[in-house]
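Subject: Rapamycin-insensitive companion of mTOR N-terminal domain-containing protein

B.,
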Amino acid sequence: MAVSIRGRPIRSIRMRGRNDSGEENVPLDLTRDPSENMREILQNVAKQQGVSNMRKLGHLNNFIKLLCNVGHSEDKFGFTYEEIILCLRLALLNEAKEVRAAGLRALRYLIRDSNILQKVLRLQVDYLISRCIDIQQSNEVERTQALRLVRKMITVNALLFPSSITNSLIAVGNDGPQERDRMVRACIAIICELALENPEIVAKRGGLSTILKNVIDCQLSRINEALMTTILHLLNHPHTRQYVRSDVELEV
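Prediction pasted inline below.
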């Protein structure tokens, strides 16, 4: 039974302004002009003071709702993609992991094509994404959103994939088993996926050695098959065979 204060249950007070995740319910009127909604969302996300983190979380979720409702159009938004990315970038610097996770999710919905991805990389957002991957292991929600964003970047254009994020994935793949990192297998899977789409960047950063190292360490046959298939695929094609160094990777 809910404890009551002055005849009003605490549970009803808590549920009035927030949902179960702690996010503050921020109304979004989709009948308004999209540019007005976008201005309100970006202003609240970018404010340094006067807006609680849970309210920012609500506005970031409203950003995704607005994007799904209106589609990708700078004319309708009233803002350029650069301006939108600059505001969302501030969310990745927030002290609350929930806000950072929501910012990563908003970027994933925003990145639709190579043009937007290039703008994200030009504004050096990839370093903040790497920071989210490297952060302490307890922030699983944030790291999960970061890895989902990384996969979206590979899907959009793997040839634009930045070395900064590649380094973070490989670092987790190398050291994760010793630290009992629960994200290590996800990172290895993404490295394999990237190796098929952009083998050059994986090879230059030592990712192929990471894949083979995990073949030795992993005891699950199905995972080992997937890892070995990635290497064999690269060896099977003349234009990718050069990336597998016989004196380094194959020595393993």
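Residues 28 and 62 are 7 Å apart (CA to CA).

T.
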